[in-house]
Amino acid sequence: MRWWRDAVFYQVYVRSFSDSDGDGVGDLDGIRSRLGYLELLGVDALWLTPFYRSPMTDHGYDVADPRDVDPVFGNLAAFDALVEEAHRHGIRVTIDLVPNHSSSEHEWFRAALESAPGSPERARYHFKPGRGPDGAEPPNNWHSVFGGPAWSRVPDGEWYLHLFAAEQPDLNWTNPEVWADLEKTLRFWCDRGVDGFRIDVAHGMSKPEGLPDHAGPGAALLAHTDDDPRFDHEGVHDVHRMIRAVLDHYPGRMAVGEVWVRDDDRFARYVRPDELHLGFNFRLVQTAFDAAEVREAIEHSLESVAGVGAHPTWTLSNHDVSRPVTRYGGGALGLARARAMALVVLALPGVVYLYNGEELGLPDVELPDWALQDPVWERSGRTERGRDSCRVPVPWEGDGPGFGFTSGEPWLPMPDDWAALTVAAQIEDTDSTLSFFRRALELRDEHAVSAGSGVEWFGAPPGCLAFRRSGSTLVCALNTSDEPVPLPPGDVLLTSGPLCDDGRLPPDTAAWLA
Ligand code: TEU
C-alpha cells in the first residue's frame, strides 16, 4: 500500500507548533489539540521533528534516548494518544530518526568517556589519537557543518568526531551494536503505530576508512561539495538497505531521506528500489524565482528519480532554511512569489512537504542576538546567525506575546505585528494565504492526484513556464518575468494572486487551469 505516493506531508517543528502547558515550548498534546485544523487544511500526513529525550543543544537533533519522549514534549502515552487520534482524523504520522550521531548525554557516550582508549565503549563512536606533538592537533582537517573543527578532545587526550555540534558525537557505523540499535528503534516505533520515518542526514553515517583529510578547497566550508569525504560515502547504502528491510516487514510504512547530495545521479542512489522510498529534493530550495531555473531543477530531478523507478519529493522549506516568503524577496513580493511557487510544486507529480507556517505565509523573523539559540550561532563564533529565524512559533490567534501558541512566553520571541497572520485571522478570509493553501490542496486531490509520473511542458513566453502533469487535466502556468502574459487555454481554477483586468497573468503569479 503506497499511500505516500502523492501525499502532502506537513512538517511539524514540534517545539514551535502548539504548547499545551504554558512552558513556551510546543508539545505532543499541543499537536493533538490541533488535529482538527490539520484535517481542515487537508494534509495527508505529519512529519514530527525529534521529540526524544534530549539535552536540546540542537533542539532535539541531539538524541539521548531514541525510544523515549522528552518530558518537555510529553511522554509515551501522549505520543500513543496523538497517533491514535491523528489516524481517526485520517492523518498519518511519521517521525524523525537521527542515526548519524547521538547526544553526548546518551548513555553510550557517557560510558565511552568513562572508559579507556581502545575500549568497546569507545568503539561505538569515532575516537582517535591526535596528530602533531602530544597529539594536540585533531586527527584530520574536517570541519563541523556548524563551524569549527569536527573534533573535540577528551581529558585523556583522544579526540572524537562530530560533524555537527560537539554535543552530537558521530556514531561509528562499522560497529554492529550501532546497527542493532537502529533496528530496535525502527521496530519500537513501528510497533507503536507510526506510518514512517524521516531519516536525518541520510547521506551521513558511513565514513571512509581511516578518515582521510578533506583534499579539496571545500575543507573550510560548511557546504557539502561532491568530493567531501564527510558525506555520501558508499557504505551508507547498506544502512538504507537495512532500514528498508525492517520496514518491509510492516505493511504501508515508508522512509524519506534528508539527502543533501547535489549530483542528481548520486542522489538517485538513495531511492533505489531496495533503499529509501523517498528522498527530499532540495533543488527548489536553492533555486531563484526564475522560470528557466525552476524548470531545469524540475526536469533534472524528475529524470534522476525516474531512472531508478522512484517517486519525486518536493519541498520549498523546512526548519533549516530561510522561509520562501523571505527567500523570494520578502514583504508582499516575497509572499506573492511563495504562493506562486506553492502552485508549481503542488501541481507536480510526486510528494510535497509543507513546513508549518508556510500555509500562513510566515516570513523569517529577524531576532535580536539575545534570543538566538541555534548552536550554529555560537559555534561559528557568532558570524552565522543560524536557523532560529525560520523556527519562530506558529501564531494561532489573538495577540502577543504568545498568539495562542502558548499561554506563557514563547521560546523564541514572536513579532508584535503577527496578529494579521494568525490562523484565526486567516481562516474565514477567502483571500488569505491559508484559504489559498486549503483550496490548492482540495483541487490537487480532485485534479492531480494519481495521475502519471511525467510532466508535459508547453511553450511559454520568456520568463514563464507552463506544464501539465501527464494524465492530469490540471495545467500550471508561472510568470517570473516583468510583464503580464496571456494564460494558456482552459478554465482558471485557482491563481496565487489577482489576474490583470484583461485576464492576463501578472508577474510573480501562477495559475491553475483545467
Ligand atoms: O540537517 C543536516 C544538515 O546537513 C543541515 O545542517 C544542512 O546542511 C543545513 O542546515 C543547511 O542549511 C539535519 C537537521 O535537519 C538539522 O536540523 C540538524 O541540526 C542536523 O541534521 C543535525 O542533526
TrEMBL record:
GO BP annotations listed: oligosaccharide catabolic process
Domain Glycosyl hydrolase family 13 catalytic stretches: 11-391
Superkingdom, natural source: Bacteria
Protein family membership: Belongs to the glycosyl hydrolase 13 family.
UniProt keyword annotations, A-Z: Hydrolase
Stored SUPFAM superfamilies: (Trans)glycosidases
Organism field: Pseudonocardia bannensis
Keyword Hydrolase: yes
Name used for this protein in its record: Glycoside hydrolase family 13 protein
Entry's Gene Ontology molecular function annotations: alpha-amylase activity
